[in-house]
Design goal:
Elements: E1 2-3, E2 6-7, E3 15-19, E4 26-31, H1 35-52, H2 57-73, H3 75-86, H4 90-110, E5 117-119, E6 126-134, E7 137-141, H5 149-161, E8 164-168, H6 174-186, E9 194-196, H7 201-210, E10 214-220, H8 223-233, E11 239-243, E12 248-252, H9 258-270, E13 280-286, H10 290-302, H11 322-337, E14 341-344, E15 362-365, E16 382-388, H12 391-399, E17 406-410, H13 414-423, E18 428-431, E19 450-451, H14 458-461, E20 464-472
Parallel strand pairs: 7-8, 7-10, 8-9, 10-11, 12-13, 12-17, 13-16, 15-16, 17-18
Antiparallel strand pairs: 1-2, 3-4, 5-6, 6-20, 11-19, 14-15
The structure holds NADP nicotinamide-adenine-dinucleotide phosphate.
Residues 141-146, 150, 168, 170-171, 201-202, 205, 220-222, 225, 228, 243-246, 277, 377, 405, 445, 450 line the site of NADP nicotinamide-adenine-dinucleotide phosphate.
Length: 474
Amino acid sequence: MYVNGEWTAALDGKTFSITNPSTGQMIARAPKGGHQETKLAIEAADHAFKSWSKLTANERAHYLLKLYDLMHEYQDQLAEIISLEMGKPFTEAKGEVAFAASYLQWFAEEGRRIYGETIPASAVNKRLMVIRQPIGVVAAITPWNFPLAMMTRKVGPAMAAGCTSVVKPAGQSPISAIAFGRLVEMAGVPKGVVNIVTGASGPISDEIFENPTVRKISFTGSTEVGKLLVTKSAAQLKRLSLELGGHAPFIVFEDADLEAAATGAVESKFRNTGQTCVCANRIYVQSSVIDKFSELFVEKVKALKVGNSIDPSVQVGPLVSPESLEKVEEHVNDAVSKGARLLYGGQRLKGKLSEGLFYEPTILGEVNSNMLITSEETFGPVAPIIPFETEEEVVRYANSTEYGLAAYFYTENFSRSVRVSEALEFGIIGMNDAVPAVAQAPFGGIKESGMGREGGHQGLDEYLEEKYISMGIK
Ligand code: NAP
């Protein structure tokens, strides 16, 4: 672990193992920290906050840009770690490293624009002003599916705002976080500004929520855990940002460019082997074009190369855990038993790859709303195609979920594009665009997909407090 600029083990020496999902082999052990290690990390962050928060934005930007450069310099090594510990295809993992670094660059620049406000007073002898200050010590709890990017999306704005942080990475992917800690050290970031504690989520998060020094928690993960954290935050009214689960509709209208829509559906569905919060979960296709679209889509999915994630030519890797693989099987079996038609795939990979957690890229036709896959997040490489007749009907279907993270639709009709983007109840809309996330735009969900935004200028607001100062003058 990386605490107060030092590399440390768990106080009792305990560790846990990390398994490569492509091979089933153990690749590393990481320290199993808990309450006490987290407490030390929070103390270090608190101490560092006093001087880090006093630096100028330019000085803080210097460290962020150094980290940005280092991430590019070590792009291949970082991608290798991501790929080995959580199974993201290597070439895609390189993309994640660049994406993760882009947040550091964006927030280095954005930190220079933490503007305040002056307000006209109601009396001649008063002046009113609002300043924005760093919130304090921040805790970041991150998931395994973007082990680097979800971290820089939190640590980047925290550093830029003048906050210090304690990061708790997911149990399946602690090595990427540790590697990031190494870069923090190489960049000469003052000790205690970024601390990384690996280990047991229960005791670590208990300390984070009970320790009054922590003023804000930024969490990315499941809606189930997110709700638990809302309850825990009540005791001290700690500020929370939550990036939670999704159930993205992907709508193809009859006036769409079907070739572009099929390409977009592959990108949106099979990225990270279907394990992203913004992956298409329900592909709605207007009946008049469903045969043509399905044909194009199946053709493209057949061309995807599945295999050991470390192979740079592989496009679809393994699932992250045996439980994830079981959930995928459950969703496919449930849909088929209720009348869905298997258009492609539909089973675990056999032969050479059977040691890993591989499932064939799968397409299901004639899916309906009685099937689990249309309401639960599958988090795997399964694409369900659902027919629809009218725009009004599909908007209703698309919105009929407790989630509200991302939604996509394809059309060449301008008026429809405006109507549908306004009618969809989601935080992110991809209109003829399957990959909308970039550092300079606000990313986040509505409804049970979370609260707060990451990226964009909004991403910095999450780490700042507003202070109103009323000044009497002579
Ligand atoms: P998860 O089980 O909720 O875990 C996420 C993080 O929370 C991990 O670090 C985990 O640690 C920790 N955690 C687990 N139980 C906890 C508890 N009781 N208290 C405090 N922390 C706890 O989610 P996941 O399965 O890793 O990630 C997949 C989910 O994340 C999906 O639902 C996906 O949609 C969502 N996601 C959302 C976004 C977004 O931006 N909206 C981005 C990526 C992923 P351990 O691993 O040590 O248990």
